Amino acid sequence: MKHIPRKRFGQHFLSDHGIIDAIVQAIAPQPGEPMVEIGPGLAALTQPLVERLGRLTVIELDRDLALRLRLHGQLDVIESDVLKVDFAQVAQALNAPKIRVVGNLPYNISTPILFHLLRYVDVIADQHFMLQKEVIDRMVGSPATSDYGRLSVMLQWRYAMESVLFVPPESFDPPPRVDSAVVRMVPRAAPVVLDTGVLEEMVQVAFSQRRKLLRHTLGRWLEARGFAGTFDVQRRAEEVPVHEYTALAASL
Known about the structure:
Rossmann fold; Helicase, Ruva Protein, domain 3; seven-stranded mixed beta sheet
């Protein structure tokens, strides 16, 4: 029976076999690797992955799809909202120090999912996600560009990232109204040690008024915290590179 895509889950199913092959090539799954797929949907990517891996864990929120996926002998199905999944427990259940994570993320909650996974980065070997191209542009954005922002800083602190594939709307059923892309995210071996909450709050304050100089936003925030060090607030938020933000957060 044909599955009707559910709007509330932001469902757009990948249907272009050339694109599916290119994504599988970018992921390069090896037999026996512990891998988790978020939002397998109609198993367009799931099937070629599990053929290469032998076994695959999938996270699916849609009850009907989860039921369908359970009929597949090589899949372990976690029926849940991905934002409630403890990936450290998943790694433990798979008896793996690190897991690989892949998926066509629901575009309406892609940023919360990325921030949720940030908490489990220590048990993740790498991540390959299909996302709205605009979001990936922001993830990999460089300082002094309009794409550079809170998402760029928070993710570049912990991951080396690259956009590996462009995916047009007609590759999906139904086609989304936006261009998509695939991003590769590899956790950094020795990131700056800091309090994530502090960095998150600091970056949010810094980018709250992009057009203004930082002395109006971050300067006041630092003052309120009794910051005694030196930091040039005569710049706009987008002019400050990631390493300066992380060094500042670490010093706090």
